[in-house]
Design brief:
The complex is a heterodimer of chains A (about 950) and B (about 350). Chain A folds into four domains: about 350 residues, 7 Propeller (Methylamine Dehydrogenase, Chain H); about 180 residues, no CATH class; about 130 residues; about 90 residues, no CATH class. Helices cover about 10% and strands about 40% of the residues of chain A. Chain B has about 350 residues and is α+β, with helices and mostly antiparallel strands. Chain B has nine helices and twelve strands. The chains are: A mainly beta (about 950), B alpha+beta (about 350).
Chain lengths: ~950, ~350
């Protein structure tokens, strides 16, 4: 009757399960999707990024990370740190303000939302009266000044968000003071910028969008100066000493204004259109940074000539005669300058520029000649080119790790050596338990090697396979090589370039042997490359072999893409992984599975037509096996051939058009309009809903048959040294599983090492198993006599694993999308099974063996299967008895790309894409958790500076 | 020729013995014969196994009329569940097989030529508004042939009537298995698939469950048309099937649940080809302590509840796709006969 016991009736096992398994989403790696706001605290040296989703993320020194999420899930429009506090205020697009603080809790800091507030106008006033356009946290830390669309400036107290109505600066009050006849009421509409005087906290500069700028005295509640700009205002910036300020304008100009006590209505000192004389785009933000040598840095966003460069996303840095317009491949959200924040310092002395573009973070070193970029330790743009696959390798030997880092460092010479300038907070997380690599394959034919050991996913090395092939991309097309007299002096920065020159280059499968340094990479056009790690540059010929997977099946015509053309003759490869063999599958269909055995020096690959085995030592094809069902026309012909890739110039012009359409205006349109749109949307939704009810979605219920499409699609390949033929002799074997539920096993004869080059590797089909439920085979695994999965190649040789038990009988585990089945070996008889789909209606998407250690005792660990289903659930299934241990919901089932992108590690962690640019890291283990743990302390503040003398003054003022 | 002899009603013995007795009585030891009897309704029914033999003996009132035909010139059409009207002709048909009727009647083949394609099961444990239908996809070329959709049904809850989402049959493919059984209809609500409730599951999940169970699919439905419901302990006719007069040990829901989850082991054994040899069915490894043997028993009992047989022109049981499976099934006759033996045919 044991089988009638429901799982979970064994209290001992239940307790053990609690010690072994635990589900946590630990950290998000990569670049946040759809960033919408940027903030920086020079005091905390922390940067904050707001997202369209309503999330905010804080970053400091590597490993210092905080995440917060606004309940409303509305776009974060602005982020402002409260001066000299561990607090920040966010403004969302629903016009609500939120106060967040970093609080210490059991030794680590946490980001918490403290208060929320929505500004309310007097009854009957239009919504624009309280629509916040500018936020100024006053250096007193006690009040916020809120500029609105109506032109009024409200004052709210912190942290209570109480409106101090008597201190509101209405446009009427401003106009009274500005007694000029051309200052009509409209000139005070919409507060564009609010800036506190750098030396005198009782003065704030108010910029209205129509060009009027007023210096307001808070003590006496009157305008001391006003400045009449003729152009629509975009932004304001005070010079450090408070004697001048800069305004920048919609027409691409900026103006310097003097502030002196004798002239109440000064004329501009300088008015300049840097990229004139033709009409220019707006300069939306400007910095004027003083330096010791007197030559200032003028840094501004935008201002490009409208007609020819209006589509560029640029930030220009002007320093004396040096001028560079940094050209970003995606829209600039915001930027800030890191400069000396010591109040006693005489000059700004800028050190770095931090730019948040829509798709990446770029930091420019302003101290080093040539203004090189700084390699960010986090916020890596995973999606520089779209991710097509990922592969995780745990516990990398130190030797290989160092070699990869050294290869990567040679690629990074153009980066600045500057230490990461945003270095607030302290990382108190324990050191990562081991060195882990995450390899991502990309659409442009590159493989990126990421340090996935800790909280910061850091790029170590980038491998490109493009060099092996001839593509229509012009290798000399370098946007950075611009002539001396080129104007504007554009310089492309950043790595985000999602436009692949040839989709056939895309990487589909990666397999790295961490012991030997062999890497196999396979791509969209049936190309399989085997590479070896070389510490030096080298020039050599890549051997080329073809694998005709259709064999003698005649009369078929492949209608998909052609294979990639290879480069003739020797090719120069930089230090790192260098290809030495290219196996080209014919037809050149996408490679769907790949396995490498570095000890036997064999690589196996499969497509929708069949699979093959290649001996990369002798550079000889051992065999191919066609798995195609003759009637499977779809697989034969390949995907419908698409329009040939456009020429690059054409592509780029498309790019520009598309980008320029993305309006970068920071304010929303009229709110009335928006509600209309919403209404229309709602109506549309309802209509479609009704339509759906009329014609409901139907699903056909039909058993799978051998004639279904893509049954020959090879889903998994596996090398094993096991008992395939008889129970006395084990031999190398290759296993392949197809979409149609067939498992093929080939017995391999690999010559001993001393005759490895002399005798050919032989293969012979030994078994063919047809699963009657015909579901795709997604995993094959051999368990040894102790029911432990066989070790990886070379694992035993490197003393990192016990040698497998070759005495007891081996078992074969076949995982299909629907069932788990254990068979005996060498005589195949079915032993156990778990019918997942029949019972739960879910299907296996990913499966890996993971080792789980107990958090209570160091000496207990076990191997289980970690399974991700099509519903986004993660299940842990015990080995070898196939009992469901635990289930966690992980990914939304609608998030198909998230589910498809998931990779498990060998120690019960995993990664999946939550957006094209972000991996979520999760852990199923109680023992292996990699998450941020950090502290942000209030830095010691030097006394007797003006900032800290102020609060008392402010208080005194209020009391009086 | 007529013979009259007596049998002990309480101990009828086995069919084999009875068959031997008949051959002995008629002195036709080596002649294959068909045995039939007239039941209380006057239908001519076959006797070819223990169960229908026992049934025949137990219903004898007090006389049991048995007809014997030589197998080679037997008129299969004589058997059937036709109504009383045909009864009058039964005798003449049997006595004068060459006397053809003007109107050709439906030809019904012999029970051993039948194979189950569907059945209504668990009538005794389900509410009368529900119907549990088993479809035997195995060994037929016929597609299952139905579609399901999302929908909503009204349930009685503590808060009154509530609309809840449900899964419904949306379409039957003409000529498909589902349609040919007549047991499923468009707009029937699907409640369970092989013993697992579908409530709370998405359409795709239910689709996957059905396809995963497609070789032995058991669907519990609430028929849209509640007028054709099986009424217990009364006869219904036609292909909609009927409940047997439950001479079977009624299965408890407990066993049922285990049975459904334990699943048929026999219905989908995988195939292996060793060294490019002949395809063979993969045997089960030596049973471990928690073997499924007890379940096999239960399974057989359940098999015995099946009825609703349809004639098939195919004499073989093996029609799953590909020559591979054809061969293995021929090689494994024992296995198939196991399944066949478990059935009682009550027509």
């Amino acid at each position: 009757m044991r089988r009638f016991l429901r799982p979970g009736h064994d209290p001992v096992r239940e307790r053990l399960k609690r010690d072994l398994f635990q589900f946590n989403k630990t950290v998000e790696h990569g670049f946040p999707h759809q960033p919408s706001a940027l903030g920086y605290s020079p005091f905390l040296r922390l940067m904050a990024i707001g997202m369209r989703s309503g999330a905010i993320k804080l970053y400091g020194a590597p490993g210092v990370e905080f995440v917060g999420l606004h309940e409303e899930n509305n776009t974060v429009m602005q982020i402002h740190f409260i001066p000299d506090q561990c607090q920040l205020v966010t403004l969302l697009d629903d016009n609500s303000l939120h106060l967040w603080s970093l609080k210490q809790h059991s030794g680590a800091s946490e980001l918490q939302e403290e208060h929320r507030f929505t500004l309310k106008g007097p009854p009957g006033s239009p919504p624009s009266a309280t629509q916040i356009t500018a936020v100024l946290p006053h250096s007193s830390r006690e009040v916020l000044y809120l500029g609105t669309e109506s032109g009024s400036i409200f004052v709210v107290e912190l942290p209570s968000f109480r409106v101090l109505e008597d201190r509101t600066i209405t446009s009427e009050a401003v106009l009274q003071r500005v007694s000029e006849d051309h200052c009509n009421r409209r000139s005070c509409e919409l507060v564009e910028a609010l800036r506190e005087h750098p030396k005198n906290p009782d003065q704030i500069l108010i910029g209205y969008s129509r060009g009027l700028i007023v210096l307001w005295d808070l003590q006496n509640n009157k305008a001391t100066h006003h400045f009449l700009g003729s152009q629509q205002l975009e932004n304001l910036y005070w010079q450090r000493d408070g004697s001048k300020f800069i305004s920048c304008h919609y027409d691409g100009s900026y103006t310097q204004w003097p502030v002196s006590s004798d002239n109440r209505q000064p004329q501009p000192l300088e008015n300049l259109v840097p990229y004139g004389p033709f009409p220019c785009k707006a300069i939306s933000k400007i910095y004027w940074q003083t330096t010791k040598n007197g030559v200032p840095y003028i840094i501004f966003q935008g201002g490009m000539p409208r007609a020819s460069y209006g589509d560029r996303h640029s930030i220009s840095v002007v320093h004396g005669s040096q001028q560079t317009a940094f050209d970003f491949t995606s829209r600039v959200i915001d930027f800030f300058i890191i400069f000396s924040s010591e109040p006693t310092a005489e000059f700004d002395d800028p050190s770095a520029m931090v730019v948040l573009a829509e798709e990446e973070l770029v930091v420019i070193d302003l101290k080093t000649a040539g203004w090189p970029a700084v390699h960010p330790p986090y916020l890596a743009s995973l999606h520089c080119s779209a991710i097509t696959c990922s592969h995780h390798v745990s516990n990398i030997p130190l030797k290989l790790w160092e070699r990869i880092i050294s290869a990567g460092s040679k690629q990074n010479i153009h980066y600045s050596n500057m230490p990461w300038p945003i270095d607030g907070g302290t990382n108190i997380a324990p050191d990562p338990p081991q060195r882990d690599l995450l390899l991502t394959g990309h659409e442009d034919g590159t493989v990126r090697f990421w340090d996935a050991s800790g909280v910061c996913l850091h790029l170590l090395y980038k491998l490109s396979t493009v060099r092996v092939f001839l593509t229509d991309a012009d290798p000399n097309d370098n946007m950075n090589t611009l002539g001396e007299d080129e104007w504007p002096p554009l310089r492309k920065v950043g790595t985000f370039d999602p436009y692949s020159d040839d989709p056939r280059l895309g990487i589909q499968k990666i397999y790295l042997c961490k012991y030997s340094g062999y890497l196999a990479v396979a791509g969209t056009a049936g190309q399989v490359l085997v590479m070896e790690l070389n510490d030096e540059d080298a020039e050599h010929v890549v051997d080329h072999a073809e694998a005709d997977l259709l064999q003698d099946q005649e009369g078929y015509r492949w209608k998909g893409h052609e294979k990639l053309k290879t480069r003739d003759g020797p090719v120069r490869f930089e230090a790192g992984f260098q290809p030495f063999v290219l196996v080209q599958c014919q037809p050149p269909a996408v490679v769907t599975s790949l396995a490498l055995h570095s000890e036997w020096k064999l690589v196996a690959f499969g497509t929708s037509h069949g699979f093959g085995l290649f001996d990369h030592q002798q550079k000889r094809l051992v065999f191919v096996k066609c798995t195609l069902h003759p009637s499977d026309q779809l697989a034969l012909e390949g995907p419908l051939s698409r329009v040939k890739s456009l020429k690059k110039s054409l592509r780029q012009s498309f790019r520009r058009i598309r980008r320029s359409r993305v309006s970068s205006r920071k304010r929303r349109g009229g709110s009335g309009n928006a509600s209309e749109v919403q209404e229309a949307n709602a109506k549309f939704d309802q209509d479609t809903l009704q339509e759906m009810e009329l014609a409901p979605v139907q699903r056909k219920i039909e058993a799978r048959s051998a004639e279904d499409s893509f049954t020959g699609f090879v889903r998994t390949l596996y090398f094993a040294d096991t008992f395939l033929r008889d129970s006395s002799r084990h031999c190398p074997s290759l296993w392949a599983g197809t979409n149609g539920g067939t498992v093929y096993a080939f017995c391999l004869r690999v010559p001993p090492a001393e005759r490895r080059m002399d005798e050919p590797v032989r293969a012979e089909q030994a078994k063919e198993i047809q699963l009657m439920h015909r579901a795709p085979v997604v995993g094959i695994l051999v368990l040894d006599g102790r029911s432990t999965p066989l070790p990886e190649p070379l694992e035993v040789a490197h003393d990192l694993s016990k040698s497998p038990d070759m005495q007891g009988s081996h078992q074969l585990l076949v995982v299909s999308e629907e069932q788990f089945k254990v068979f005996t070996l060498p005589k195949v008889s079915s032993k156990l099974k778990l019918k997942l789909t029949a019972l739960e209606g879910c299907r296996v998407r990913k499966v890996t063996v993971a080792n789980f250690g107990s958090c209570k005792t160091d000496d207990y660990s076990e191997n289980d299967l970690a399974v991700l289903t099509n519903l986004g659930d993660i299940q842990i299934i015990s080995l070898p008895f196939l009992k469901l241990q635990i289930r966690y919901p992980c990914i939304r089932k609608e998030d198909v790309s998230g589910i498809a992108s998931c990779v498990f590690t060998k120690y019960g962690q995993g990664f999946y894409l939550i957006s094209p640019s972000e991996f979520e890291r999760f852990s199923l283990s109680t023992k292996w958790l990699v998450g941020p743990r950090c502290v942000v302390d209030m830095p010691e503040v030097t006394s007797n500076n003006h900032v800290h003398s102020k609060p008392s003054m402010e208080n005194a003022a209020r009391k009086s | 020729e007529f013979r009259r002899f007596s049998l002990e009603r309480s101990k009828p013995g086995k069919f084999e013995e009875f068959y031997g007795l008949l051959q002995h009585v008629h002195k036709i030891p080596n002649v294959d014969v068909l045995v039939g009897y007239t039941d209380v309704h006057g239908d001519l029914l076959p006797i070819n196994n223990d169960d229908n033999y026992h049934k025949a003996v137990s219903t004898a009132n007090p006389l049991l009329r048995i007809f014997i035909q030589r197998k080679e010139d037997a008129d299969y059409s004589a058997f059937g569940t036709d109504t009383m009207t045909r009864k009058k002709n039964v005798l003449s048909n049997v006595l004068r097989p060459d006397n053809h009727k003007k109107k050709p009647h439906i030809v019904i083949s012999m029970p051993q030529d039948f194979r189950p394609v569907s059945s209504i099961i668990d009538v005794d444990i389900l509410p009368e508004t529900h119907r549990r239908v088993r479809l035997y996809k195995y060994g037929t070329d016929k597609p299952l042939g139905f579609y399901i959709r999302d929908g909503s049904s009204v349930r009685v809850t503590p808060h009154g009537l509530e609309k809840v989402p449900g899964i419904f049959i949306s379409r039957l493919v003409p000529g498909g298995l589902a349609q040919s059984t007549g047991l499923l209809a468009v707009n029937d609500e699907v409640l369970e698939v092989n013993g697992i409730e579908v409530s709370g599951k998405s359409l795709d999940q239910v689709t996957d469950m059905m396809i995963a169970n497609s070789r032995n699919l058991i669907i519990t439905v609430r028929p849209a048309n509640q007028r054709n419901n099986v009424v217990r302990n009364s006869r219904t006719s036609g292909s909609s099937g009927q409940s047997t007069e439950s001479s079977l040990p009624s299965s408890t829901p407990n066993i049922l649940a285990n049975f459904l989850q334990g699943e048929e082991e026999s219905d989908e054994e995988d195939i292996i080809i060793e060294d490019s040899g002949e395809p063979q069915q993969i045997p089960k490894a030596a049973p471990t302590s928690d073997s499924l043997e007890s379940l096999t028993q239960i399974e057989l009992l359940h098999d015995s509840t099946q009825n609703g047989f349809l004639p098939s022109s195919e004499m073989n049981l093996n029609h799953s796709a590909g020559s591979v499976s054809m061969e293995y099934e021929v090689q494994e006759p024992d296995h198939k006969s196991l399944e066949e033996d478990g059935t009682i045919i009550t027509l």
